[in-house]
Amino acid sequence: MSGASGAIYGIRLLEVLKDVADVETHLVMSDSAKLNIAVETDFSAKEVEALADHVHSNKDIGASIASGSFRTDGMVIAPCAIKTLSAIANSYADSLIVRAADVILKERRRLVLVPRETPLHTGHCELLLKASQLGAVIAPPMPAHYIKPQTIDDLVNHHVGRVLDLFDIDPGLVQRWQGVQQAIADAK
To answer: Where along the chain is FMN bound (predicted)?
Structure first.
């Protein structure tokens, strides 16, 4: 988790994965992420850490997840700050978050970035393009209006489910689109 607004996306991801068999989670939080958790949610950083199987300091460049020999299906940075995106796009691995992301890319594993910045200027868009060209999947939390969300949780859950779809994990959070005819029938 990096320091962008939207800490709930990373928290919900951990909450959901805690109940998925055979998934081991490793959490790294930037100092700004910890601050945003306190500002945006009712969680403490310690409570978020308790959701993960393993917690690493962002300063620990020598952690297990900083090596290509560490076996993993991939990595999600949710939320992903533009500063973190920039470091990833430019291979500037000055923290464990960025080093682990760089390793995921070099090993050709799945890296999903959930950027929360808006609006974007050309420099941001170029960084997103560069990260995508390196192999990252860019998954900004865009609301799926067809689900007719009633709460922020509806939106968060749907997006977390879509992120997990990228890893072939289906905890049942996504209301799947059934086509326009079904949507019309459901609206009646």
So the answer is: 3-5, 30, 116
